[in-house]
């Protein structure tokens, strides 16, 4: 049994020595591979990093220039908006002054709003229509005086036609409701 123990110890020592030798070789091979990778990365870095940094710097400069142009355009647009608001306010002040002088306009009422020409719902009457209306109007007509904006005739009426019914319905009667 002692021989068996001696042989087992020798085998274990040989295995341990082989393991240490293999580990050293692997370590040296890994160190050599790492050095090769570092050398390759250094040579590639010289060829690729500088152009990439140049492209990035160029793109950043172009972006800064575009931002400056955009800021300038935004400032010009803001100035134009302010100028337009000032012109609109000046025009509205003129209309309000005219409304204060005109006895036909109740400028002190709660729902008073100046009738500024150019708005969507209150377009001024074209001169051709004003002249045509004044020549055909009678003295008893209650339409607004020429030169004042007017609303489209029938603008306050219910749009469309009433639903045809048998006399039991009207504007809001549904066609599919069957009454017996």
From TrEMBL:
<feature type="compositionally biased region" description="Low complexity">
    <location>
        <begin position="133"/>
        <end position="145"/>
    </location>
</feature>
<feature type="compositionally biased region" description="Basic and acidic residues">
    <location>
        <begin position="89"/>
        <end position="111"/>
    </location>
</feature>
<feature type="compositionally biased region" description="Basic and acidic residues">
    <location>
        <begin position="64"/>
        <end position="81"/>
    </location>
</feature>
<feature type="region of interest" description="Disordered">
    <location>
        <begin position="47"/>
        <end position="180"/>
    </location>
</feature>
<feature type="compositionally biased region" description="Low complexity">
    <location>
        <begin position="47"/>
        <end position="61"/>
    </location>
</feature>
<protein>
    <recommendedName>
        <fullName>Colicin import membrane protein</fullName>
    </recommendedName>
</protein>
